[in-house]
Amino acid sequence: MLNIKMDLSKTKKEKPDEKNLSFGKYYTDNMFIMDYTEGKGWHDPRIVPYQNISLDPAAMVFHYAQESFEGLKAYKTADGSIQLFRPDKNAERMQSTHKRICIPEVPVEDFVQAVKTLVSVEKDWVPSEPETSLYLRPFVIATEAHLGVKPSSTYMFMVIASPVGAYYEEGMNPVKIFVEDEYVRATPGGTGFIKCGGNYAASLASQVKAHDLGYSQVLWLDGVERKYVEEVGSMNIFFKIDGKFYTAPTSGTVLPGVTRMSCIELLKKWGYEVKEEHIAIVDIMKAAKDGKLEEVFGTGTAAVISPVGELRYEDEIARINDFKTGDITQKLYDTLTGIQWGKIKDDMNWTVKVD
Ligand SMILES: *Cc1c(COP(=O)(O)O)cnc(C)c1O
What is the pLDDT of residue 172? Predict the structure, then answer.
């Protein structure tokens, strides 16, 4: 158990209009911080007023991107209680990220306690309008001032919180996706399976290119042959072909999403076959032509489920399900959001109450 020191903000910011929150625009009054020093371990956990942090310009995070992050949400239920969705999975994933980029691990129970405590302090910031939530961003940065390349000897673990609105302001509508065949996101042996900022820096050029062409997201192909589908922007992706579901395996190059994992568990519970396999983009385009590509959707904490209405690969365009949200896509969305906002019974035991 962490002994978290409370040094809370004396002033309270004005709360934003819950009907116009958008994503990552507002931050709560306080934040969680904990330091790491080699030889001493993680120490001084505290909740302090939300504020700028001061770092030496030589701090290693700025130069060599030794940094990790997570993303999860706190939801307000109809009876006014607040709950998290599988926070232990985020904590475990952060540990796997840290192993890969030589950051000391944060114990799972300390991660969960830090998140829960901050949410509890910021209770009033958890919005209650439909589909709104308090987005939590735990992250760790390397803080040692040193220009030689090596793992830092000091770090900061922080959690900040941001009230967010429904991801799609006009309701859930299918998105258009551009299949990237020039740049790659991840290669075997690299960092594709972890949540680190560097992966995102490398993805921006494709994102800009896709936007310029009128597509909202990029679908990444494997980094070796540029042949097999991997994932989308900040989401995993599923294809329903001829009654079966396919999604890329998470070994090595694909981020193991908590939403992905939860969808697989639900689909299997509902009796569907889910294949975690490498599937070639040409086979997906062919399935679309043959009328067998029934549904496509992305999964991630921010959007929950995002139906895909169009895929563009080179000069070919596949329209999916007449650009309408598929039945199972909708059912997954309704079930996951139902559990998250406490509207349906959580018989999977996925939610954790915050008191
Ligand atoms: C965070 C993330 C996801 C989705 O993971 P969830 O745990 O479902 O939010 C998918 N792909 C990438 C690259 C990510 O960073």
Answer: 82
Domains, the chain: 5-164 (3.30.470.10), 175-340 (3.20.10.10)
pTM score, whole prediction? 0.97
pLDDT tens-digit profile of 319-337?
Answer: 999 999 999 999 999 999 9
Q: How many angstroms from the chain centroid is the CA of residue 146?
A: 30
Q: 291, 308, 290, 312: which is closest to 299 by C-alpha? A: 308
Q: Whose CA is nearest to atom 6 of ligand 1?
A: 257
Q: Whose CA is nearest to atom 5 of ligand 1?
A: 257
Q: How many angstroms separate the alpha carbon of residue 193 from the centre of ligand 1?
A: 10
Q: What 3-state class would DSSP assign to 160? A: strand
Residue of 234, 250, 263, 297 to mutate, ligand 1, most atoms within 8 A of C-beta: 234
CB 196 within 8 A of CB 98: no
pLDDT at 75: 98
